[in-house]
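Could you join me in thinking about how sequence relates to backbone shape in a protein? Label the sequence line and the structure token line clearly, so we can match residues to local backbone shapes. Once you have written the record down, we can walk along the chain together.
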Amino acid sequence: MNILLLGRFGQVGWELERSLSCLGEVTALGREDADLTNEDQIRAVVRSLRPSVVINAAAYTAVDQAELEPDLAFRVNAHAPGVLAEEVARLNGWLVHYSTDYAFDGTKPKPYDEQDRADPLSAYGRSKLAGEEAIRAAGAKFLIFRCSWIYASRRTNFALSILKQAIDGGELRVINDCFGSPTAAPLVADVTAHALRCILKDTDRTDLSGVYHLAASGVTNWFEYASFLIERAKDLGIPANPSQISAITEREFAALARRPLNSRFDTTKVRKAFGIDLPNWQCGVERFLHDVASALMLFPSIRELEKKQ
């Protein structure tokens, strides 16, 4: 199997290069070789490599900044996935793409399933939803995984931000009325590899083409998540000692982009389609913290760790 991976240096892309290696030949490209703002370059890369699978792990992810530059967010998150889908359709291949819980407005009292109407609150959410629609319109075979609250021991994410601030001894004000499931990038990558193995093992399972909700099991809110991170970090010897941690509402947070209050996903479809179980969110966070603790044994500060990546 010839696989083209875009976004190799992102949180999920970094893990995908590992998880996909057992499936076939992987060509992993970063922005310098496949810039999603450059349509001609995207088409040229796909046409030259002629992959059987294209995995798009690249995206514009600056949620608040997208309110100030929506055109760029749409160019990367909506137009580029549509272009990729057109090229994949010509090759009769598969496209794997990642979307977000921000596709929903968060007002549903229960977990969202794939049949629920998407209604984004932010420019970022609208750009990601438009990317889903562009992929569908292109007629390609696709797997779209909507993921929530992604984190990893590299790049920028909520978990690392909390640990940095706690290690610096700063005051933490964390939202307590947004609910969801922290989901580890390695889990997303491993599920992706397993799903591809299922659809391509014996025959081309076009019946599995579609949108799937993918998140760890269990539910928490940002404040409880931050508190768990800090307490378990201390147990592992990470000097996470904020001066204070207090709970605030999403409205009090007053960011440029609105966050959905409910980001809970019903993952029944992905579990049944690919025969998998999804671990509780605490399992992935524990592994993440062990990785951070091990790294801090080599580098004296978490900021030094970030410089090494």
In short: The mean pLDDT is 93.
